[in-house]
Amino acid sequence: MKTFKVSSRSVLLCGSAFATLVSQPAFAQIEAPDTEDTAPGAVPPTEIVVTGSRIARPDYQANSPIVSIGEDAIENSGQVTVERALSELPQFTGSFGQSNTRSTSTSLNGGQSYASLRGLGSKRTLLLLDGRRMQPSNPDGSVDLNIIPEALIENVEVITGGASTTYGSDATAGVVNFRLKRDFEGLTVGTQYGISDYGDGDSFRINGTLGGNFADGRGNAVLSVDYTKRWRALEGDRDYFFFRRTTPGLATIPQGNTIFGANRPTLDAVNSVFSGYGFDPISGSDGYYTGQIGFNTDQTLFTTSGVPVQNFRDPETDEAYIVDSGPNSQQINYGYADGALQANLERYSVFGKADYELTDSIRSFLQFSYVNYESIATGNPTLASNVYGLSVPSSNPFITDDFASILASRPDPTGDFTFYKAFNILGPRIQSYRYDVYQITGGFSGDLGLGDLTWDVYGSVSRAKFENEQVGGASASALERLLYSPTGGTEYCEGGFNPFGNVTPSQECVDYIYRRTLNTNELKQRIVEGSVQGGLFDMPAGQVRFALGGDYRYNSYDFQPDAQLNQPDGTSDILGYSVLRPAGGSVDTTEFFAELLVPLLHDLPFIQKLDLDLGYRYSDYSSVGGVHTYKADVDWQATDWLRFRGGYNRAIRAPSVGELYAPVSTGSVNIGNPTPTGSEGDPCDVRSSYRQGPNGDDVAALCLAQGVPEALIDSYQLGTAQVFALTGGNPDLQEEKADTYSFGGVIRSPFYSPMLSGLSLSVDWYKIKVKDAVGPLSIAQGFQFCFDEGGNNPTFDPDNYYCSLIERNPASGVPLNPQQPLLNLGQFSVSGIDIQVDWRLDLEDLGVGTNSGRFDINTAISYLDSFKIQNLPGAPTYDYAGSIGKSIESNAGTAHPRWKSVTSFTYTLGDASIGLRWRFIDAMKSSSQVVNPDSTTRGVESYNIFDLNGRVMLPAETEMRVGVTNLFNRKPPQVGNREGNYDAQNYDVLGRYFFVGLKKNF
């Protein structure tokens, strides 16, 4: 049974924070903002601007489906970043967040948190701060949620569907608008601490916000500072990750093991060695050995042919070396590191804003934000494996007599051989991600003096700079010099380098191999925007209102790799990392937009009000040229209690500067392990369903055509679930086009009974169809489709497009940097229904008793009807709704459940409340079964998880809140056939988590 642990830092942090709060006198006043001040731009307090529109008017409501998340809901998530509160909403799918512990070699997003609406990816979800664009934190245009000034969030408004007419590019899936508190007066200090039931994953946050009026009330200023610290949580502390250590496959070990390729030794030579160890002969069909030879710690040999492995020694270690993948697979303890479930994070942020009325009709504001944060990821030691295996000459002086006799039996006895090795001697690979982001925004707004016309103009300057430092790397050139030295490298370092067995080299040799790299990325954004809005003229049904404006936007990207990854000879000197070239570029955008609100009918039977909202935007991009977006929305107030809303939007998303200009780089991509019935893994692997199926001969012929050596075709195994795929920018990309439809209704209870008067219901249908979607063509599907999965290559043609993405090592057959090209893919279409129910019950009105409190029920439910994807024009279309394992983008999440819901039950009595929250994710089949109904890759079961939270006002204007997330410590469901494989983006992998928070007003 797991023992709950509390670290000393936990006690110290909680104690100091509490002492800070309770030792001060109390008084503070926070004036929560009305919806009038949503902006962009200040408008008179009697007018409202809702997210998704540029027009202000009295009593205005959103025409698009909108969800609002309050400050309390964010706090009740128990996390120190807002990302978790968003990802739990049914409209969102899991995206990189606190579980984002590592990145690819370009290191563009380690530790960042994103919001992904409808599973369409963070780059298609536009994030705004008070209606204005924020600085992108990723070259693909995504905004990192870590830069949001969370202490000032009043609420978060989420609109589904295209909003490009209103806000421009990137709003394909919808908009998330963070609305900040206004007219803040006083001082508020808050803190929170949390820890998992396993004694890790600690999180600590403390913030202070100071604000007040000045100049006789003509101005208001606010300053908020925030410090956040989050520690790692480890897989090894959770029993449900234990089985990852018994996953079939061939591990890379510190002692090393060989890959012979087509130059194989004879069985007689191998059996001669192993008979001396006391083992029975190994059999084979052609007289040549087909397995690997590994080294024990004492430099004796073991063989991976057959189960059990013969002559493996050192069984007392607690790490794992696993062989074979059949029912007789064997675990030998060697070679796995403990992975992180939650990334380290340390963040400092400052936000300030000043509003000032220059005259009675002109207002101004100046706003700035600065965020500095660092996330650290620890991974396995550097591995020389797969395409990064070492080449060793047969003349190496450290080769033992036993191994030398085996090498001498090969057809080319003096040929080099491939050697795999885990460089534990260098320690773990540690990647730190340091981000420095600022944004300065200022502007003016006022009244034109013509009717109620108002104007607004603002400008913004921002920059995101981030550095990725990688330590624990190995120099390929240094290793080559040591391995090919006649002396074993004694001329380079003391004692030379013996790679065979677990021989510890001298510190001088370790330092000779060890490398550190540093890559830098810089993103810049400049914005100038001006607009005017107000009433035009009156019609019988009401006033026609408009908004008109234009903007200019500049975005640039610059990437500078470490010189060791960009050698003059065109190679990378860091083992396991591909060549990186400097890259960069910029995009200029000029836009004009207009919106018209036309009241059509009013005060008729069943039509209290019927309004039409029309919008148009013309955008001229330096990258793709001129594009058009437009919308038509309808708002129909049928009765006091029934309202309908809906419309059509044409949206676009222009390719980002990163998608256009990012360097080609290598990233580790999981293609799965081969099984006789599944669709995962390398199809050429003899254990795969492709080789063992009815088309096995055609598959083998295609594998030979791709480069698998004929001598290995009947024994070829990849031995890993990962390949190192190439992905980079494409300057020829065109814009995405999206058509969004929505229709729904809002019902507020028409009944006056105490039981039903507090009931409201909204139901909204949506459909988003995106053409020419920009994204990498998944190499996992590239393998599958090349080998005719889903009928994509029925003739097994090696010149098929998907096959052209795959290149193999002619000596071993191992895939060499297969390509994941960034393309305008085919299309995808997403449709579904959102339901939200709110029910408030005042118990006193029900006759329970005086001052008996209030009971609130809130539920948000999402049903996904379809999630159709066509990878390329003319290719088959597959519906991934109700499946897990398929992602449009690497940061879009992989789960597409039919049903997802969040339901809260809250009881409030005076200044205290207690709440229970139920989170539900529907069961899903594997995405492999979508393409191949006969696939036996397992899906996931339904997932129910409960959270408990409470809050109370203490004396001295202090609020305390406590909570437990994942109350019953429900483990996440296994994804796929690989034991210990879980989806940290969509499921709770931390386990039960406790938190306590305090907030004090002065």
Automatic annotation (TrEMBL):
Source organism superkingdom: Bacteria
The UniProt entry, under InterPro entries, shows:
Beta-barrel_TonB (IPR000531), Beta-barrel_TonB_sf (IPR036942), Plug_dom (IPR012910), Plug_dom_sf (IPR037066), TonB-dep_rcpt-like (IPR039426)
Which residues does the UniProt record annotate as the domain TonB-dependent receptor-like beta-barrel? 428-967
Q: Which stretches of sequence are listed as region Disordered?
A: 93-112
Transmembrane recorded as keyword: yes
Secretion signal span: 1-28
Where does the protein principally reside? membrane
Localization in the cell:
Cell outer membrane
Topology in the lipid bilayer: Multi-pass membrane protein
Q: Which Pfam families match?
A: Plug, TonB_dep_Rec_b-barrel
Tagged with keyword Signal:
yes
Protein family? Belongs to the TonB-dependent receptor family.
Report the protein name in the record.
TonB-dependent receptor
Origin organism is Altericroceibacterium endophyticum
